[in-house]
Write a structure and sequence with these properties.
Rossmann fold, binds magnesium ion, about 50% helix, alpha/beta, five-stranded parallel beta sheet, 5 strands, single chain
Length: about 130
């Protein structure tokens, strides 16, 4: 069996972190309908738990969350990948239109992609495609 072939054609796994249950549910449905394999987490600790169990191709995280905020989640995921000698996972931040200060902090951290909430589905899918390696 050619394992490389299977790996190449598997669904892209996306880890989505948001403390809002409705957002999580929407993301899960959207991502699944778009042909991805989503895993949703309600916070940083849960997300990091999933990260130790399987490989992810993309991280989507909310910023404002109780406990770890999104920027802390991003830092922790980067640290984990570095420690485990894994490739960095592309990051997309979910942020509200009026959250310019938070957005600036994310930029300083080196986050390149933002999805503004509420987002349009076609824009969302375009950003995902752009950030997923083929
Ligand atoms: Mg939130």
């Amino acid at each position: 069996m050619n394992t490389e072939h299977v790996v190449h054609h598997r669904k892209k796994r996306i880890l989505a972190v948001d403390d809002d249950g409705l957002v999580r549910r929407s993301l899960e449905i959207l991502l699944r309908d778009a042909g991805f394999e989503p895993t949703v987490a309600s916070g940083g600790q849960e997300a990091l738990g999933f990260l130790t169990q399987r490989h992810f191709d993309l991280l989507i995280t909310d910023i404002r969350m109780p406990g770890m905020d999104g920027l802390q989640v991003i830092r922790a995921v980067r640290d984990y990948c570095q420690e485990m000698k894994k490739d960095p996972i592309p990051e997309i931040v979910l942020t509200a239109y009026n959250d310019e200060a938070v957005r600036q902090s994310a930029v300083r951290l080196g986050v390149k992609e933002f999805l503004l909430k509420p987002f349009k589905i076609d824009e969302f899918l375009k950003v995902l495609a752009h950030n997923l390696s083929q």
